[in-house]
Amino acid sequence: MKSFVFPGIIEQDILAIGANQVPYMRTEAFSAIVKECEQLLLNAIGCPKGKVIFYTGSGTAAMDATVACHVSTKRKALAITGGSFGKRWQEICQYYAVACKQFEVPFAKDIDYTRLEEVISQEQPDVLLCQHHETSSGELFDIRTIGEICKRNQVILITDAISSFLADPYNMDEYNIKISITSSQKGLNIPPGLSFVILSEEITKEAFAHRNFYLDFNENLKNLVRGQTPYSPATLLFLQLHARLKRIEKTGVTPIIENVHRNALYFREKCRENNWEVPAERPSNCITGFYVHKDGYAIFKELLKKEIYIMPGGINNFLRVSHLGCQTPEDLDILARSIHEIEEKL
Fold first, then answer.
1. What is the residue range of 73's domain?
2. Model pLDDT, residue 126
3. How many Å apart are CA 194 and CA 131, to the nearest integer?
4. pLDDT (tens digit per residue) in 278-309
5. Does 1 reside within a domain?
6. Are 181 and 196 spatial neighbours (Cβ–Cβ below 8 Å)?
7. Is residue 314 over pLDDT 90?
8. Least crowded by CB within 10 Å, which of 20, 137, 157, 205?
9. Are residues 19 and 75 in the same domain?
10. Does one domain contain both 171 and 182?
11. In percent, how much of the chain has pLDDT > 90?
């Protein structure tokens, strides 16, 4: 099997953790693992004095919790919508009846940052909601510049870093990011099922709303003091997370990002050789989104027969390839050659 979807190919020793018997989690030993996971994750994301709320759920659960518990306490939000994941912020705000304006960005285009600051000045939102990487297109937004804009205008920056964390440079304290969302099945390269809300030290001092029982910030933070989640966690996923974070602690974040970057550049050269268009103006390392010449969904289905997994893009002839996980140039050669051969037969 060749996997170019999330989380990519996972090392066998980390996979093997998920095959163990499930230990009881209401113990001092498991609490110590949770507390260590918190600090290791905070260090890796550049927010060492913050707090992490752990959810057994996808990244959208963490986005939901953030709107329900924090954004709902504010007067107005502004959401950058550059694709389906950016639009999700606006949809969640609508669900909770939170006032939210949209700043629309065309598909696979970068933000007009001058215009963004003008709109922020006009609208005066309390919160800016954005993606670091719009996964539906492959476009990476300049989060450092966005953070500077928010700092000048005294706006709280909340960022979905689900597909950029450990793929692209990202540092909460350095970039003035007050809340980050990420999850287990992207850069952390373990199975899906855990998501994380990372709160800056400043935000932990605020009062939160009680608008979601399971995802309540206060209840989760109270239990975190003892190294626990208020409800049953995905125990084996926590053990896999712990193993992954300990590995990151040894290597540092930079070599991981550099490896993802090399694979992305290598595959984009294959795209150029085959005249496949990469539309993103500023592509993330995480994925390459590209237009092929023939029916993209037919190519996707033919690759499945070969046990090669990529992501359809939801747009005619648009495909997406992840560069996360255990991936080599040889793997990417096989993928590019397979797509080319299928195109010639269609």
1. 10-251
2. 98
3. 19
4. 999 999 999 999 999 999 999 999 999 999 99
5. no
6. yes
7. no
8. 205
9. yes
10. yes
11. 99
The answer to whether residue 2 is domain-embedded is: no
pTM of the model: 0.97
Write down the pLDDT at residue 321: 98
Strand partners, 195: 55, 183
**Residue 5 falls inside a structural domain:** no
C-alpha separations of 281 from 88, 159, 166 in Å: 22, 20, 21
CA distance 51 to 58: 19
Q: pLDDT tens across 1-17, in order?
A: 999 999 999 999 999 99
Note the pLDDT of residue 14.
98
For residue range 40-76, list pLDDT tens digits in order: 999 999 999 999 999 999 999 999 999 999 999 999 9
**Contact of 326 with 4, CB cutoff 8 Å:** no
Residue 209 β-bridge partners: none
Take residue 273 and report the two structure tokens written for it.
């050789």
Rounded mean pLDDT of 140-145? 98
Q: Tokens 């960005």 label which residue?
A: 105
Length of the chain: 346
What are the pLDDT digits (tens) for 177-188?
999 999 999 999
Question: Are residues 194 and 88 part of one domain?
Answer: yes
Q: Tell me: do 308 and 196 sit in the same domain.
A: no
DSSP strands (E only) in the chain: 2-3, 51-56, 77-81, 100-104, 127-131, 133-134, 139-140, 156-160, 179-183, 194-199, 287-291, 308-309, 311-312, 318-322
Which residues lie below 8 Å from residue 120, measured CB to CB, with a gap of 6+? 78, 128, 149, 150, 153, 155
Count of the separate structural domains present in the chain: 2
Residue 291 lies inside a defined structural domain of this protein: yes
**Domain match, 227 and 259 both:** no
Long-range (24+ apart) CB contacts under 8 A made by 16-24 are 17/236, 17/239, 17/240, 17/243, 18/191, 18/236, 18/237, 18/240, 20/236, 20/239, 22/235, 22/236, 23/235, 23/239
